[in-house]
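User: Could you check the structure of this?
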Amino acid sequence: MQFVKSHGAGNDFVLIEDLEDRLGILPSSLVAAICDRHKGVGGDGLIRIARAAGSDFFMDYYNADGEVAEMCGNGIRCLGKYVADRGITTADSLSVDTRAGVKRLELYRDDDGLVDRVRVDMGAPILAAADIPVDVPGDPLHVAVTADGVGYEAACVSMGNPHAVVFVPSLDAIPVERHGPAIETSRPFPAKTNVEFTEVISPDEVRVRVWERGVGETQACGTGACAVAVAGSLRGLTGRHVIVRMPGGPLEIEWTDETVLMTGPVVEVFSGELAPEFEGAMPTAAGSSSGKGVA
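Assistant: Sure, the predicted structure tokens are below.
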């Protein structure tokens, strides 16, 4: 079975084409094995690309631990490049169904006609505590959390998946590898959470390090960048048009009156064929893209 390895701002994914939806939902153990950086292809997640009723494609997304997830902003850009560069679609505008709803993509091409940048309409942010979800009686933009005895105040936002944005004076002083997982699994978050440690440089620029739920620290996170821009604006720390600088590169985020727009780069790294032991573990019965309800 063929695969492609791509990344968006350093956030990397294994993509598997399954346009006829023959595989369905993949076993979590198989996904984790493929995403293993020592014994597999390696990646922050895996994307199975299928057709979708009412949309151009369905993004069946899995975190590196093998669990299905609602949405991935960097991953959906990689999907857009994959289907356009291979001529599966000739359109420059796509609709992609996800477990967080339908997202619309605008594809931008380089001089060779290959997609190198994608803008994604990420939809409106979710700000109600029960829908994020975060289990607090008060304002979800001011949630007290603790990591290793250090207290933080998280601004909680969902972009189809949960985020806890923690604004800090100095990003370099934060032990993300310890405090990230402590916050991810802390009591207020019944579905766990992604964590964005954020330093505000100016009203239109921030620095961010991300601890992704079920993955660990990643080079970038598209939904996380959107959550940062929304939280920063609501807290009065940033404007609605923000450059979010992550270790893997910058993402441009604009929060309009109706939606959040994310623009960023996308790169294909290599392609290959899965070894027989991986392919043999693939489901053989026809699946269903309606598996979006499993997340």
